[in-house]
Amino acid sequence: MKSFKFLEHDIKELEERKLAILLPFYVLKLRKQTVSDKTSKRRAELAIEMKTIVDELVEMADRAEASGLVSEADKRIVLDHMERLYRELFAQYTEFKEGDVMLQDKILTYSEEAELRGIKKGKAEGKAEKAFDVARKLLARGMTLLEVAEIAELPIDKLQTLVPQ
Fold first, then answer.
1. Structure confidence by residue, pLDDT tens digits, 51-77
2. For residue 141, is it within any domain?
3. Is 136 left (phi over 0), alpha (psi -120 to 50) or beta?
4. CA-based angle 51:17:29, to the nearest 5?
5. How far apart are CA 155 and CA 148, in angstroms?
6. Contact (CB, 8 A) for 85 and 24
7. For residue 142, is it left (φ>0), alpha (ψ between -120 and 50) or beta?
8. pLDDT at 18
9. Total structural domains within the chain
10. How far apart are CA 46 and CA 88, in angstroms?
11. Is residue 110 one of the residues assigned to a domain?
């Protein structure tokens, strides 16, 4: 069996092969160079290259979620692991601080967005549940489906599930 050395492949190829789960490890790509290059100037160049890589990885994670390859929760886990590995490998180099902060900001933003989506979904579900409660009461008082649909602002086909057969 042939080995697959994923660091030898570009991010687009990993995406085509549906290997989003390997994203966190892609930050290893510049580790050896960072350790071996002793000059701050060269490390600054590597930090810029790493920032580009991280941007591509985050975009790939977004596309993987949008295509259904990974769930929103899985994407957050992948990004969180990527951020932890990045910090572990590069925290000692001041040139890489900007990338660490950027990655933390992106992960925080995703977490906040997910929380807001959850709140909005919960509110919508609560509103729909309340509308169905009102509809049940109106139907129990003998109102027609059409009248209840108009008052409760619910589609008639959804209300038909409330009418005993």
1. 888 888 888 888 888 888 888 888 888
2. no
3. alpha
4. 30
5. 9
6. yes
7. left
8. 84
9. 1
10. 16
11. yes
Instruction: Tally Cβ neighbours within 10 Å of residue 43.
Output: 21
Asked if residue 99 has pLDDT above 80, the reply is no
What one-character DSSP code corresponds to residue 150? H
Domain membership of residue 156 (yes or no) is no
pTM beyond cutoff 0.85: no
Output the CA angle 5-8-97, nearest 5 degrees.
Answer: 110
For residue 94, the tally of other CB atoms under 10 A from its CB is 12
**Distance between CA 54 and CA 37 in Å, rounded?**
20
Confidence of residue 13 (pLDDT cuts 50, 70, 90): confident
Judge whether 38 lies within some domain: yes
Nearest partner of 103 among 8, 37, 26, judged by Cα: 26
Q: Which two structure tokens, joined as six digits, stand for 133?
A: 């409660």
| Residue 38 structure tokens | 């002793």
Q: Which domain holds residue 49?
A: 6-121
For residue 49, give the H/E element and its range.
helix 40-66
Element (H, E) at 88: helix 72-90
The one-letter amino acid code at 39 reads: T
